[in-house]
Amino acid sequence: MSTVPVEPIRHASVLPQAAPVPAPHTRLLLCIISLLIFLPLAFGTVEPWSIFVMEAFAAALVFAWTRQQIRSGALEVTGNPLFWPMLAFAALAAFQCISGRTAYRSASIHQLMLYASYGLICFLITQCLAARRQIRVAAFIISIYGFCVALFALLQSVSSSGKLYWVRAIRSGWIYGPYTNHNHYAGLMELLVPIPLVISLSNGVRSSQRKMALGAAALMAGTIFLSGSRGGMLAFAVEMAVLVLILFKGGPGPAKGARALGAFLLLLIIILAWLGGSELTHRIAETSRGPHHELSDQMRPRIDRDALKMARYHPVLGFGLGTFEDVYPQFRSFYTEEYIDQAHNDYLQLLDEMGISGFCVMLWFVVALYISALRKTNNWRRDPYEAAALAAMLGCTGILVHSLLDFNLHVPANAAWFYALATVAALNRPSGPSSRPAK
User: Fold this and answer.
1) Angle, nearest 10°, between helix axes 194-201 and 254-275?
2) CB 182 within 8 A of CB 176
3) How far, in Å, CA of 191 to CA of 423, rounded?
């Protein structure tokens, strides 16, 4: 009697495998990150050529995404809670341009195109960011980028060349990193520091990666202080206060997180003592009256009072998006040789340009951002989605605080990073098999 060989039974995994993210989506996401990396390096994207590159590249990426959707035969659009206030703001600005309710139509159209490019970046992030691996890769790329920018800024400040990239001279300003204004460099670091910091506090990260992330975050935070930006220091302090509140609100492993956060703060103090020394306090004290052509502490409240006076003339719709520079000289109540093209308070400038209507839309945007982000902070040390939301929310918090004292959201590079991180903070968790980890 012959025997029949029996194949051994192979047990299949009980859990369904994660559906792979389409390769074009990953490529588009990397292109978006590349664009965001480029913007601060182009002097903050404040010149016409760099603004054109941002607008054209964002439009080209949306065209590529649309073509891919047509080829796949199904148009799938993922929503985001921030889309509605963003669309409302765009409609309000478009109404100003179409109806002639703007003091300078050309400036309003130019600014509307700029905001449209921010919207396209946010739209693409929402459509393409759909996997834990994408989040991890993006977080490490941004952390390395932030560390490199901070290291470059430090080396450039030590060399005392007085030129951008040691090559390009400027007429006035306080160069730090790739920016002509040290406050705007601090704004960029406020946005980026929470990313490596949250990585260092999260579970599931190798010890070597945790240490590198901790070091990167400490150096990046240290350059905020070394840049001399007092608004940046205040914003960073608020970020840390929010992080401590979330860390101790009952999440897993608060003691371990406290030790890691303590190590970060200790390393930050060591960096400041080593690189700043006794000159740091003097440097901070001399920020407003040093030879850097900055607005004095007495001038900022005057501008705020003038901005409030402006808002009373067109309270509902404002003077028009992007028109502050053209309208403000009519309301300036003091003499100065300084050229004032921004209000140095993003909230008051928004009230002047968009009126109460635009201000209410902004409040809608901020409330939607925090409601969506805070819902995802219960398990952030274990879940990459929640960790990304926390880091993005912290970065947005810093820039929103700094906006009380400066105009970071009118610097295209910082504004693009802010809206990108706000999109991540409010991003809905993907549903279906693709959101479940493979066994």
Assistant:
1) 140
2) yes
3) 13
Q: By CB neighbour count within 10 A (0-12 exposed, 13-18 middle, 19+ buried), where does 341 fall?
A: exposed
To which residue do tokens 């989040």 refer? 135
109 backbone dihedrals φ, ψ, rounded to 5°: -65, -45
d(CA 226, CA 216): 15
Q: How far is the C-alpha of 35 from the C-alpha of 40, rounded, in Å? A: 10
Query: What length is written for the chain?
Result: 439
Contact 426, 82 (CB under 8 A): yes
* pLDDT, tens digit, 9 for 90 and up, residues 201-237: 988 888 888 999 999 999 999 999 999 899 999 999 9
**What is the radius of gyration, based on Cα positions, of the chain?**
24
Specify the range with the lowest mean pLDDT, choosing from 295-299, 317-321, 368-372, 388-392: 295-299
Locate all alpha helices (DSSP H) within 100-206, ordered by sequence: 105-128, 132-159, 182-192, 194-201
pTM, entire model: 0.90
Alpha-carbon distances of 120 from 44, 83, 104, 311, rounded to whole Å = 19, 11, 25, 30
Task: Say how far apart CA 388 and CA 374 lie, in whole Å.
Answer: 12
On whether the CB atoms of residues 312 and 356 are closer than 8 A, the answer is: no
**Coil vs helix vs strand at 176:** strand
Two structure tokens written together for 359: 């201000």
Q: How far apart are CA 214 and CA 195, in angstroms?
A: 10
Helix axes of 105-128 and 412-425: crossing angle, nearest 10 degrees? 40
Q: Concatenated DSSP letters for 286-325? A: TGGGSTT-PPPTTHHHHHHHHHHHHHTTSTTT-S-TT-HH
Q: Give the three-class secondary structure for 168.
A: strand
